[in-house]
Specification:
two-stranded antiparallel sheet, 12 helices, globular, TPR-like_helical_dom_sf
Length: 267
């Protein structure tokens, strides 16, 4: 289902999230990603040259100007679509989701030693930097906002009863960042009806966090929709056995009973 090279990248602790995400997007679209890798390396070199010529101002401001003005990246108004998540499309079209744009910014920042972090804010990737204390950055709009607004964002996303907690501003590590992008990609592919590709993205997440019952359940749902009965039943049974108290178990048991006997072959 996934190539050996991609599996190795998913399991490597030192792998750069942007490169792993790019190779996954390449496998999904059957695209050679070497030209896209060349773009990323070229942009790093261009940014390095720009910073070397800079005599005043913050490197972070130069990075953001380079990304949003010179390279003309911008947020995709339909950023919940799969094209806004897959890096091959994002790099080609210069537009994407907050998570995809944030991932590219973090890659460029790391190459120049610019302090920039992703935070574990629910449902939306945001960035912070010690050079801009008291503020957070929205990759989708390209603007900084006062940290005091963050709870209002949380209420807008999750409901007015929500309150901002320390965990919402915890930095994301590389694995957490990649999982955030893959989760968004899986959801977008599912909404777009690209279920086989959604299965592959879910499998990539399982490679990173083996035996996660909720990911295995999600894979089972998708496999059932694709009429891959045997692996779907195995996945759903795994979830029921490992999470017997989950409220969804009764529904899943009924779904397993309703699965047909004939099965499609998964490649």
């Amino acid at each position: 289902m996934l190539s050996a090279d991609l599996k190795a990248r998913l399991g490597a602790r030192g792998a750069k999230p942007v490169m792993t995400a790019l190779h996954l997007a390449g496998e999904l679209s059957q695209t050679d990603v070497r030209a896209f890798e060349g773009c990323l390396l070229s942009w790093r070199d261009q940014l390095s040259l720009r910073l070397g010529q800079q005599t005043k101002g913050q490197p972070l401001d130069a990075l953001l100007d380079f990304f949003y003005q010179e390279l003309a990246f911008h947020g995709d108004n339909s950023h919940f679509t799969s094209q806004g998540c897959l890096l091959t499309s994002v790099i080609r079209e210069r537009r994407g989701s907050a998570t995809a744009l944030g991932l590219l910014l973090l890659y460029l920042a790391e190459g120049q030693g610019i302090a920039l972090d992703a935070i574990d804010f629910p449902g939306y990737l945001l960035l912070t930097s010690p050079t801009r204390p008291g503020a957070f950055f929205d990759p989708l709009s390209g603007f900084w906002h006062p940290m005091a607004e963050l709870e209002l964002w949380l209420r807008g996303l999750r409901g007015n009863w929500q309150r901002l907690k320390h965990q919402h501003t915890e930095p994301l590590d590389n694995q957490g960042l990649l999982l955030r992008l893959l989760k968004a990609t899986k959801g977008a592919l599912t909404r777009d009806g690209r279920l086989m590709e959604a299965v592959k993205v879910t499998q990539a997440m399982v490679e990173m966090t083996p035996n996660d019952p909720y990911l295995i359940r999600d894979r089972g749902y998708l496999l059932a929709e694709l009429n891959c009965v045997a692996p779907a039943r195995d996945d759903l049974r795994y979830f029921v056995e490992h999470c017997p108290d989950d409220p969804a178990c009764a529904l899943l048991k009924n779904k397993m009973k309703a699965l047909p006997t004939d099965s499609a072959t998964l490649h």
